[in-house]
Design a protein that fits this description.
Distance between the termini: 39 Å
Strand content: 25-35%
CATH superfamily: Vaccinia Virus protein VP39
CATH topology: Rossmann fold
Number of strands: 7
Order of helices and strands: HHEHEHEEHEHEE
CATH class: Alpha Beta
Number of domains: 1
Number of helices: 6
CATH architecture: 3-Layer(aba) Sandwich
Length: 208
């Protein structure tokens, strides 16, 4: 946590220095633009300084956001206030965080959660278990570049998004999109250039 706290403290809250920019992930925007996706509530796991959670709240969605870094969460609250929105923000480690019994959300977002794969998959399972019937699970993150390839993102392969791991533990959800490919990103001071990413859009069945 100290590492992320120092990174966010150094970046500050100015729009020009935010590590991942002021706008939400483009894939998040694309999912919300679908005519069949209209969540009233959302859970953002690993929301950092709030670019996704703040934007979702500005769309009229009741947002709960969890992040390990208390500095990032303080910054996120600053951005929420500047945007005129309210987000329920929780400082917690996703290695052991679970929501209160009975709490559910219409959508869960796991966007660029940079942590060990076991923690990320646990967070995905916790999020999926908290979905309402018909609820949406959305994930995007840096994927392995492949043999001989290069890509933006962590050097440690354990910090990258592996599609098979998600699909193995989320077999109770319906798969609408499960994609890997190259995109160009321009998000803040750290996400700039060509990247190989994994994208997932899953849905909890309506019935039992």
């Amino acid at each position: 946590m100290k590492d992320w706290n120092s990174r966010y403290a150094k970046a500050g809250t100015d729009a020009g220095t935010r590590m991942f920019g002021t706008q939400p992930c483009e894939y998040l925007r694309e999912v919300l633009a679908r005519t069949d996706v209209a969540p009233r509530t959302a859970l953002c796991l690993g929301d950092g300084d709030g670019r996704n959670g703040t934007w979702l709240a500005a769309q009229g969605i009741a947002v709960t956001a969890v992040d390990l870094s208390d500095v990032a969460t303080d910054h996120a609250r600053h951005h929420d206030a500047a945007a005129g929105v309210t987000v329920e923000r929780i400082v917690a480690d996703l290695a052991d965080w679970t929501p209160d019994a009975g709490r559910t959300w219409d959508a869960v977002f796991l966007m660029y959660l940079q942590c060990e794969n076991a923690v990320r998959l646990r967070a995905a399972r916790v999020g999926a278990d908290a979905l309402t019937p018909g609820g949406w699970f959305v994930a995007e993150g840096f994927a392995p570049a492949g043999a001989g390839g290069t890509s933006m993102g962590p050097d440690n392969p354990d910090l990258l998004y592996e599609m098979t791991g998600f699909l193995d533990i989320l077999q109770d959800l319906d798969v609408l999109e499960a994609l890997k490919g190259r995109i160009r990103v321009n998000e803040g001071t750290r996400h700039r250039g060509e990247a190989r990413v994994a994208r997932l859009l899953l849905r909890r069945p309506e019935g039992p």
